[in-house]
Amino acid sequence: MQKYRNEAEEIEQTIAEMVEKNVLNDELYARDFVNHRLKTTNNGPMMIKKKMMALGLLERDISVAMDEHCTENIQIERVAKLLQKEKYDSDEKLQVNKVMQKMMRRGYSFSVVEAGLYKAGQNE
Fold first, then answer.
1. What pLDDT does 113 receive?
2. Span 22-75, pLDDT tens digits
3. How many folded domains does the chain comprise?
4. Is 117 helix (H, G, I), strand (E, B) or coil?
5. Cβ 63 vs Cβ 26: under 8 Å
6. What interhelical angle do 59-69 and 45-54 show, nearest 10?
7. What is the domain-level CATH number for residue 58?
8. Tens digits of residue pLDDT in 1-30
9. pLDDT at site 2
10. Are residues 123 and 75 in the same domain?
11. Do 77 and 124 fall into the same domain?
């Protein structure tokens, strides 16, 4: 029993040291997570937020990270860039709707997808 008590004390001490040295910092982790996901995936902010909630991060830390890295302008730029890669006829309403639904499934809001469509249409 004494052995387990000592191990628990050691674990608590190690965690306290890590927090003190800023190694265990959920806010920094959330920022890095958002930044990494934006660079390596096509996921939108809602999808990224859902993943972070599943990891058990606090809403406060998630909000700070999302506000910092996922502004509306950044989202519109990303959607426009993704839409330029899609093969669809912008005059064909059914194809446009399918592309919009695809972007919303990836975690982008309707307004951002709409603005991205407009911006992608201007760049053609």
1. 93
2. 777 888 899 999 999 999 999 999 999 999 999 999 999 999 999 998 899 999
3. 2
4. helix
5. no
6. 150
7. 1.10.10
8. 455 566 888 888 888 887 788 777 888 899
9. 55
10. yes
11. yes
